[in-house]
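Record pair follows.
FIRST:
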Amino acid sequence: MNIEYILPSEIEKRSFEIISGELKEQGISIPEDEAPITMRTIHTSADFDYARTMRYSNGAIQRTKELIRNGADIVTDTNMALSGINKKKLASFGGQVHCFMADEDVAAEAKERQVTRATVSMERAAKLGKPVIFAIGNAPTALISLYEMMEAGKFTPEFVIGVPVGFVNVVAAKELFLNSDVPYIINEGRKGGSNIAAAIVNAILYNM
């Protein structure tokens, strides 16, 4: 295999050209509005399964952009996702990124109540008092907690990016929102991760 000599500034562009070419070879066509997001998840993971498993509710991308333009905040379930999101771009629209998972008081409350930190974090997020986009890449209990609050009439998320990774309750947690009326971007199955959650947010921000 020959080595390609590419300027650093051109590497990402070349990567997307390769992804586009391989999708075409596989006979996969992604809707135009979804392509920047799905392709960035592939770019982040080098996993073409995302071309088949990403799910978008009707009008999902338009809805996320509306929320961002109106200053919505983003809440993640890991500091890794928080670190990966382009906070400067989000701030230009008046939004901030939050992650409560590492807060000492969150850990203490979770231990006292014998629940996960993700559960307490989602409850904290529900009290922010402004529209929130949830970008969940690690903890299925975060999605479950959001759904339970919604079912109890306590809080309804404006938008859910649900891509937790793993084996325990991951598929079931995603399906809760696939079958709900909450706007979403979700990857079916076990795959996902904090890097994927951040990639989805950034893909939206870069295409505002």
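SECOND:
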Amino acid sequence: MFNKRREILFLYSVKDANPNGDPLNANHPRYDEETGQIMTSDVRVKRTTRDEWILEGEEVLVNGEAVTLPARYDELKKKYGESNAETVVSHCIDARVFGATFAVGKESFSWTGPVQFKWGRSLHRAKVEFVQGTAAFATKDTSEQRSFRNEYIVPFALMATSAVCNQNASRYSGATEEDLTKLSKALWYGTKNLITRSKMEHTPALLIEITYKEGHSSHIGSLDERVVLCKTDGSAFSDEEQYKLRSLKDFVIDLSSLQSKIDEQSDHIDSVSVIINSDVRVKGIQQEPELR
């Protein structure tokens, strides 16, 4: 297990792509009509990290294959030569980090995930555009013309999500400090590796990790809500100007509110790590960042 609570703030940009389509709404990007914010589920973030772990050769329980849990369990039992369900599943980094609910035959258990992500939201108002194009093939052999394809894209959005890494839950799943390090790496590089037609131009922008001292069981919470976008002169964007943002270079990320909370909790904080995309401008943070 890991023995220190940790919080994660992760920002990434999306350009001319669909951050997280809703399959029950024609794959329309998830969207808050009241605030004008694009939304992404925690499941989308977990899929990004899982896909990267698979690329890196890590064992995952949910590997993207269309397979039943009993069949996947049998694969893992044969691979590791073990029969106890919890021991078998503990070989999977996604189960250790995100938790698992397992029930096969007479064996069952449930691990609450030590790492819990919030739903992500864009840090500004953003548009959703409906675009059409010509499909590659006709719908019928007798058709003289090809059919049309429809899709939704977001011209630009800076997405933010945050997570809490709960050391108490790691006692049961066995998640380690090394697992958390691999999670951070997968968040950053997994986002860069979202190279599909609907996910092209996903770019990691900022990753902050706050590690608390051993024995401290509280945290700041909702780190994403303490981030503000502003113009280069420090002034606020109007609603209309927010819709026109198209690049990481169009704004400054103000972390002053977050820094204030870090200062308040400084007696309980062991370390703060900051990774920033070299195209991003940030103000209000005192920690020396690592540029990528």
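COMMENT: Residues 53 and 187 are 10 Å apart (CA to CA).
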